[in-house]
Design goal:
This protein is mainly beta. It has three helices and 29 strands. It has a domain of 137 residues: Neuraminidase (6 Propeller). It has a seven-stranded mixed β-sheet, with no helix packed on it. A four-stranded antiparallel β-sheet has the order 4-29-28-27, with helices on one face. A four-stranded antiparallel β-sheet has the order 5-6-7-8, with no helix packed on it.
Length: 380
């Protein structure tokens, strides 16, 4: 049964429906109202520009020294005046204070207590830092970074890429794409109670890019980033999984028969990447008044979407990898993004048409190419 309620918005891109959905996940049915955002007026060449009412709250250059330098910025969480950043290239987690001073690295590589062989993800729960290894979950103290304990779980040939933990007795693992075909049904999201698998969600049907899958939402909830070709954005809480938002790209949604079952990274995958469809949603963050997300569109280019929940206005356009902040966290009021130091060369600053970027560059001042990442906190 579906009940529709239409709200007229100022933007021609947005129509919001409140809809009662029946969601089937491993023979379970979850009833939950959710909101559909309809995007159907595309300009694939238009570049995204942050609106003029944006306010830069703080610029945080991360300390640069041999112990603090990051190779990649894969995931970041801010808590208790600390900025924790996971580097997937080097497989480590580093902590900085809220002014960018390096504090400590969380754990070390190895096979002993508190060590990890392959750190894959992390999250914060109360005053604990939890990190996902391939066969266990380690717990560290948020204040000191010191090891506290480990959780083990039944593996059954699992290959988890990320996780969400509500407490030591209640956590979820997200599985990577399977290496080979199997007669048994495979599921992406596995629920664990007291270390044992109790449920599974989202049956595996085709390949999807592995990456950050869980991001903090409002009111102690977490977003589940959709897999390739899916446009329902789920939220997960301690006791439920439900659709929070649905992104409707109309005729630019990729048909199921265009999705790649097992990519050979040749013709079929290239055809998929170069297609004019909007193929996947990469990130989603929410404040009290705004929803922000990125997506992969034509020719595998990145696009940004900012929705004003109060007015219905939508800003949509191609992501500019040099000039736009790469959003990684929201505290519910402000957004946090990061830049690579190479964005702030004299030539790029002079060539920029973004007022936001030029204002930011003036606040930062001189930047060396070998400097660590630069974080900017801003509000709308």
């Amino acid at each position: 049964m579906k009940n529709y309620f239409v709200i007229l918005a100022k933007s021609s891109l947005l129509i919001i429906f409140t809809i009662i959905s029946l969601i089937n996940v491993n023979a379970q049915t979850i009833d939950k109202p959710h909101t559909i955002f309809v995007l159907d007026n595309f300009d694939d060449q238009n570049r995204f520009c942050w609106p003029p009412m944006i306010r830069i709250e703080k610029v945080i250059p991360l300390e640069t020294n041999p112990n603090s330098i990051l190779g990649t910025f894969t995931k970041g969480i801010i808590r208790e005046n600390k900025i924790l950043i996971y580097d997937s290239r080097n497989r480590f987690l580093k902590a900085f204070d809220d002014n960018g001073k390096f504090l400590f690295q969380v754990g070390t590589k190895g096979n002993g207590p508190g060590e990890y062989t392959d750190m894959r993800d992390f999250m914060i729960e109360e005053n604990n830092i939890w990190s996902l290894d391939n066969k266990k979950i380690n717990c560290f103290d948020l204040l000191t970074g010191k090891f506290k304990s480990s959780l083990k779980y039944e593996t059954k040939n699992l290959n988890p890429t990320c996780f969400i933990l509500f407490n030591p007795n209640n956590f979820y693992l997200w599985q990577s794409n399977p290496y080979s075909s199997s007669k048994d049904p495979l599921y992406r999201l596995l629920e664990f109670k007291n270390g044992k698998q109790t449920n599974s969600y989202f049956k595996w049907d085709y390949h999807s890019v592995d990456g950050v899958r869980f991001l903090e939402g409002l009111n102690n909830s977490y977003f589940i980033i959709p897999i390739n070709g899916e446009y329902n954005i789920y939220k997960i809480t301690e006791d439920s999984i439900f659709i929070a938002y649905e992104i409707d790209f109309k005729n630019r949604k990729i048909p199921k028969d265009k999705l790649v079952k097992r990519p050979d990274y040749t013709n079929s995958n290239n055809e998929y990447l170069k297609s004019t469809y909007y193929k996947s949603i990469d990130n989603i963050f929410e404040t009290e008044n705004y929803i922000y997300f990125t997506c992969v569109g034509p020719n595998a280019m990145g696009y940004e979407v900012l929705i004003n929940k109060l007015t219905g206005k939508i800003d949509f356009g191609k992501l500019d990898y040099y000039y736009t902040p790469r959003i990684f966290y929201s505290d519910g009021k402000s957004l946090y993004g990061y830049y690579n130091s190479t964005s702030f060369t004299k030539e790029r600053i002079e060539n920029s048409k973004s007022e936001f970027f030029k204002t930011l560059a003036k606040k930062i001042g001189d930047v060396n190419l070998e400097d660590n990442f630069i974080i900017v906190k801003f509000s709308l």
